[in-house]
Write a structure and sequence with these properties.
- The protein has about 90 residues and is an all-alpha fold.
- It contains five helices and no strands.
- Helix 2 packs parallel to helix 5 (about 75-90) and helix 3 (about 50-55) packs across helix 4.
Length: about 90
């Protein structure tokens, strides 16, 4: 038997990022997509975070944050620029 009543059940909107409290889910989706692409390029290239940071023109710690999807402090343009610099090296 389930002791939960209807007041304890919350229904999602169908948009996970919105439900998680992101103010602009579409922007966050774009950031996550770019960060994922950056992480895959770094992994596929076999370069270090330090090398990636130099290529992208950002700090090594920022590379780690991007690879881990901690991207709220970056703009879409910053991430796109970093990705383009990284891809132009390949």
């Amino acid at each position: 038997m389930n002791d939960m009543n209807d007041d304890q059940i919350s229904r999602g909107t169908g948009d996970f990022l919105h439900d998680m409290g992101y103010g602009n889910p579409d922007e966050m989706r774009a950031k996550f997509a770019i960060a994922n692409k950056i992480a895959l390029v770094i992994e596929d290239s076999g370069i270090t975070e330090q090398q990636a940071a130099e290529l992208m023109g950002i700090r090594e710690g920022d590379v780690a944050r991007i690879e881990n999807g901690i991207v709220s402090e970056f703009s879409v343009d910053q991430l796109r620029d970093a990705m383009e610099r990284l891809e132009s090296w390949r």
